[in-house]
Amino acid sequence: MFDNFKNYLENKITLSDQELELIKDVCILKKLQKRQYLAQEGDVWQYNAFVSNGLLKTFSIDQKGQEHIMNFSPENYWTGDRESLTTGNPSDFNILALENSEIILIKKDDFEYICQKIPQFYKMVNDILHKSFLVSQKRIHANMSLSIEEKYHNFIQQFPSVANRIPQHMIASYLGISAETLSRIRAQSAKN
Known about the structure:
alpha+beta, Jelly Rolls, four-stranded antiparallel sheet
């Protein structure tokens, strides 16, 4: 499980054996079964989490019982609740394994320690946070300005490996549309 994380890190930054060992020493390896929660609404999120293998979704449930998917996290993605991690407030989100998954967890204090001791790790984290912010900004803009068809095609481009691994109703939830509307869009796309 750590080998996937090690490969991910080595593709992004150059680390000495000592630095890799320092990172490995603070990693908590967690296996999740399909439909098992990594976190639930009301928990205080205390980790930086890397998906070594599998697929998770981050979502909330509104007062009407409607699910709203915020994000999908396949392998080589980071997941968690940054707001809860930063503020110490209870999370508004649930994180659930959609497949059997392997997660690397690093406690907040340990993560900050690694960032202090390994400058290139800190730079990598900053780059990831900047990219995440830009992705969020683009998603907000897309939700305000793109047609449903364009939103669907953007999803397929952003998550090509995920689209075939999840049910249609989850894609619809992520896009903020009904499953029926998504079915119609997919049928139209197949004709073109």
